Amino acid sequence: MANGSYSDPPAQVHEAHEVDTFHVPQAFHDKHPTGTHIKDINEYKKLYDESIRSPDTFWARMARELLTFDKDFQTTHHGSFENGDNAWFVEGRLNASYNCVDRHALKNPDKVAIIYEADEPNEGRQITYGELMREVSRVAWTLKERGVKKGDTVGIYLPMIPEAVIAFLACSRIGAVHSVVFAGFSSDSLRDRVLDASSKVVITSDEGKRGGKVIGTKKIVDEAMKQCPDVHTVLVYKRTGAEVPWTEGRDIWWHEEVEKYPNYLAPEPVSSEDPLFLLYTSGSTGKPKGVMHTTAGYLLGAAMTGKYVFDIHDDDRYFCGGDVGWITGHTYVVYAPLLLGCATVVFESTPAYPNFSRYWDVIDKYDVTQFYVAPTALRLLKRAGDEHIHHKMHSLRILGSVGEPIAAEVWKWYFESVGKEEAHICDTYWQTETGSNVITPLGGITPTKPGSASLPFFGIEPAIIDPVSGEEILGNDVEGVLAFKQPWPSMARTVWGAHKRYMDTYLNVYKGYYFTGDGAGRDHDGYYWIRGRVDDVVNVSGHRLSTAEIEAALLEHSSVAEAAVVGIADELTGQAVNAFVALKEGNETTDQIRKDLTMQVRKSIGPFAAPKAVFVVEDLPKTRSGKIMRRILRKILSGEEDSLGDTSTVSTEPLTIPGQTILTISSCRTLALWTRLLRLFTPPASKRHTIDDNDMGAKFLMNYEGLDGRDSLSVQQAIFLFSFPLSFPLFVQF
């Protein structure tokens, strides 16, 4: 979509010349009940041009069309990136719960709102919009009677059950701000988020279930609450009926409380710019950021992308496999489908339980029309084999991909084996901070290229920036870092309690632009190809993890002097956490230390952050000023040890620090040699794994189980390692 010229020969986006362009299958149109919301790609271009040239007119029309305001807004937008004061639909008032529930319940109370697919295939239930309004009202009454008022934050630590959705909407019904913590995070991570958000009420369950396993959610909450003295209420939903510890006066049962209150509580209108929720995301500095989204702008982004990207219509049954603990679950399990009045599937289990047909069973069972999932799950299921796909799945119109770029071969498998060449694939790019899809095909409209996120959504004006000069690179067939040139309604407004951090992270990097933190290319057709993070964040299965946060967890161990964490490409999870640690003087490398280090990360952050591989080394590569050069570690592990780049700043003299030594460039070369030799002796992944329910990919996707099932050292590696002195380095994979 970009125009302009570029004086130097551009770096071509090679993948664009290596893949075919796929047009919308005719079968998509043949099975469509009514037709897409816009006619064709030309209408997209016309609307897109309007959204860039006349954004106020465009967004005002869309807001009034898709949202119900209690009081109409007077000003569509004011503010700027430079000042960090963007506000949308100013003076307007509305309620998120009303927009998601009441306006549909009042028209058709018997229409299905939530399809709950429980962990066990034969369990579960469906909830209508009328029932949802009643349950949301009763929980809202409960919160109100416990002292929660407009603007207060409520912590939510729940598994993937309908009550998680109800809790979201109960908070928004009374103007409270929900702060959801993924129910795979550790007690320490939960504690930090509850404290940062100043939550005084936490909602959880006695236990959770996932992949046939039981998760002690209440136990984790109890541990976290030991250091959260301001929390006066823990509302507990009875999921399994297990006996759990109880703190009288603080802990209350969900089922007992809701019975005390009426079936209806009028929703409280809030200002368009009042906070709707906080969601904590990893940052390069280590401390999680409480990203704050406001009400009207976020809701419009969710509704618009649901309508135009996923082509949602009234009678659709929408299945997003994301967890509500992440932004994907917020926007595309809860808000987008409910705003548009369709049925949303709440999926408690994993794609591998009880077998690798689980997703496909659900799609056929409920005649799912849109399916949205991360490439990690698709890689796992592709590797499991097509013998698990013996389903019709003819109801599918849209197949979505989220969280990370999808490889071309996985894209084609998704299109052919899952979609039967009848569904349109939408490979979406967005972030927690963007609120909703920002670069994406439109379902049933946009021609697609495997591996490309395609074209910008309405109101999104991408720029490819030269990271050295900070100048925009015009034209096509260019590479750089991705930024956006103008505000859009669903963008986050701030970091909770840290607006300077928000400005420095997103808006001050390149003045006048929103900085995504991702590299990208724009090909000869103007299609965008996402390259991944350019900061110290690892993207594991679409979940952003801070390397600094993982390093801090490792350093909490008494034996560790230094730690460095890098993300390396992984065929299953997209990226994998790899850790380097140098032990303090007097500590020996033992199996117990290695196990303790892994448990340290699991306890501090959560099982999903556990390193895939740990290298115990004598020292780490540093600049003369003492800064760890993670770039060198990343290149070595990626097999690029012959192209370490500029190493002139690496210390060549050993610099003694208590308990450690600065790694010299010769040590880097030694590490590279060892890594290369180990690679030669490592069997291919296809020969090291067999697909079963204990497979590491299946376990990772369970989130709660981490990577306990990963391979140990192969026999070849063990023989090789223990045939040589192990002064530097010792490679450990467990």
Automatic annotation (TrEMBL):
Catalytic activity field: acetate + ATP + CoA = acetyl-CoA + AMP + diphosphate
Top class in the EC scheme: ligase
InterPro entries membership: Ac_CoA_lig (IPR011904), ACAS_N (IPR032387), AMP-bd_C (IPR025110), AMP-bd_C_sf (IPR045851), AMP-binding_CS (IPR020845), AMP-dep_synth/lig_dom (IPR000873), ANL_N_sf (IPR042099)
Acetyl-coenzyme A synthetase N-terminal domain span: 44-100
EC numbers for this chain: 6.2.1.1
Domain (AMP-dependent synthetase/ligase) ranges: 102-491
Keyword Nucleotide-binding: yes
Protein keywords: ATP-binding, Ligase, Nucleotide-binding
Top-level taxon of origin: Eukaryota
PROSITE patterns: AMP_BINDING
One Gene Ontology term from the biological process aspect of the record: acetyl-CoA biosynthetic process from acetate
GO molecular function, one term: AMP binding
Gene Ontology, cellular component aspect: cytosol
Similarity comment: Belongs to the ATP-dependent AMP-binding enzyme family.
Protein name: Acetyl-coenzyme A synthetase
Organism: Penicillium salamii
